[in-house]
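2024-03-11 09:14:02 INFO worker-7 job=invfold-0412 stage=load source=structure_tokens
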């Protein structure tokens, strides 16, 4: 953990917090306690002592709504949650969530750590600080994120059918939108346009939000696709976003040419004109390669 923190500080110039514990859930909570720039190791002999004094909102699945519901019955710490009757929790939160939170409050987390699991999705995000929710801000950012994600999908020949975007506003509240497509995609511009449409929908649904602090794109339902299924030239309105049309194939072919140039001359050798190429430096190549190995 110390080595990881030192490497991230040296190569990215960023502080990170790390939690070490016997279970995945407790390690996650320890990393939250360690923020903004620390390392917390939970001794297996004192797990419940550490856990039960912490606020309940640090737990998995406890957002603002659940926190308010729990506060309504006098539950503010994880220890108070652990001592709450299981039936009361299930009536308040539902059977599945109530049983899950009760188990986690006693640090019962049977999930195993799978180090060789194949990724089920590929994603990227960009923290923007406090930027206006205007297209000159989110359009190039989405294209940059789509470039990162789609490049990884093409490298592994694993296009995806579901596109999800996440928009975080100034108050740190996040909103997600997703769409599942008829065919899997891996073309950069195609992914960027679909993500842009989803972000615009978020902004229409939240007209009072004028500031964006983070944007994220993820592609899931990945498929192992040996070839591209071509479509008849029907002249549909969304031809540009359908991978099997003439326009779709042209976009994918252009991306593959970009991939070959980057493989030979580096990531910054070529890119989309509407995106500052310097943005790609936010993630060193060594870290990109580590991420791609999991796909």
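2024-03-11 09:14:09 INFO worker-7 stage=emit residues=295
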């Amino acid at each position: 953990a110390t080595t990881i923190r030192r490497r991230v500080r040296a190569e990215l110039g960023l502080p990170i917090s790390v939690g070490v514990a016997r279970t995945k859930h407790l390690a996650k909570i320890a990393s939250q306690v360690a923020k903004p720039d620390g390392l917390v190791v939970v001794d297996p002999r004192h797990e419940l002592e550490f856990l039960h004094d912490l606020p309940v909102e640090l737990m998995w699945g406890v957002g603002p709504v659940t926190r308010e519901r729990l506060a309504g019955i006098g539950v503010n710490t994880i220890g108070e949650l652990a001592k709450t009757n299981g039936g009361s929790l299930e009536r308040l939160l539902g059977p599945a969530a109530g049983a899950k939170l009760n188990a986690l409050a006693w640090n019962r987390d049977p999930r195993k750590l799978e180090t060789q699991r194949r990724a089920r999705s590929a994603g990227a995000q960009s923290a923007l600080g406090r930027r206006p929710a205007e297209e000159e801000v989110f359009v190039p950012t989405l294209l940059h994120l789509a470039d990162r994600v789609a490049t990884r999908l093409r490298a592994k020949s694993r296009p995806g059918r579901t596109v999800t975007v996440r928009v975080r506003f100034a108050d740190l509240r996040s909103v997600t939108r997703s769409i599942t497509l008829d065919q899997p995609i891996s073309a950069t511009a195609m992914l960027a346009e679909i993500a842009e449409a989803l972000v615009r929908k978020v902004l229409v649904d939240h007209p009072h939000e004028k500031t964006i602090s983070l944007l994220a794109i993820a592609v899931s339902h990945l498929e192992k696709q040996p070839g591209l299924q071509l479509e008849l030239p029907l002249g549909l309105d969304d031809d540009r976003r359908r991978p099997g049309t003439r326009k779709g194939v042209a976009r994918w072919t252009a991306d593959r040419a970009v991939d070959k140039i980057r493989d030979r001359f580096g990531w910054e050798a070529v890119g989309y004109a509407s995106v500052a190429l310097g943005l790609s430096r936010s993630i060193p190549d060594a870290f990109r390669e580590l991420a791609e190995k999991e796909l």
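2024-03-11 09:14:09 INFO worker-7 stage=report msg="The two ends are 23 Å apart (CA to CA)."
2024-03-11 09:14:10 INFO worker-7 job finished
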